[in-house]
Amino acid sequence: RQAEYMGMAELNQRRVPQELRGKYPQGLSVGLEDRRSEKYRLPTPPKYVAFSGKGVSLGERPQTAQQVDVGAIPPPPVDERKPMTTVQLRLHNGTTVRLILNTTTKVAVSYTH
After folding, report:
1. First and final CA of the chain: distance in angstroms?
2. Higher pLDDT among residues 84 and 93, named by residue
3. Total H helices, total E strands in the chain
4. 3-state secondary structure the chain
């Protein structure tokens, strides 16, 4: 704490602190404003902008998505003797699909489904 105080004392004398002079032998310009008389005010938080959920890369044309009949795809195999879980997937067209999987099932299985 004493070293911090010494650095502030040098700044108050309009001198670059010794610690910084050692790091920057070529010289360093330091600007200091005395705002001790001002009451501290928290910075205003950034304006919140919700993600719209859409995105297109520059130069890329929006692609039309393939229509997939989810009912035509058989569900992944499940071993009823092992622990199971339900995973809900939201597809590109907004429909949701619930899959019952074993807790040891690889993520790639749900992707290929």
Report:
1. 62
2. 84
3. 3, 2
4. CHHHHHHHHHHHCCCCCHHHHHHCCCCCCCCCCCCCCCCCCCCCCCCCCCCCCCCCCCCCCCCCCCCCCHHHCCCCCCCCCCCEEEEEEECCCCCEEEEEEECCCCHHHHHHC
**CB 99, CB 78: distance < 8 Å:** no
Over range 48-60, report the average pLDDT: 68
Token pair of 110, please? 């749900």
8-state DSSP, 72 = G
Pairing of strands 96-102, 84-90: antiparallel
Under 8 Å between Cβ of 95 and 71: no
Are 19 and 7 in contact by the 8 Å Cβ rule? The answer is: yes
Q: Locate the DSSP E strands across 8-95.
A: 84-90
Average pLDDT over residues 101-107: 86
Q: What is the largest CA-CA distance in the chain?
A: 79
The single residue listed with the structure tokens 């692609």 is 63
Q: Above 70 in pLDDT, residue 67? A: no
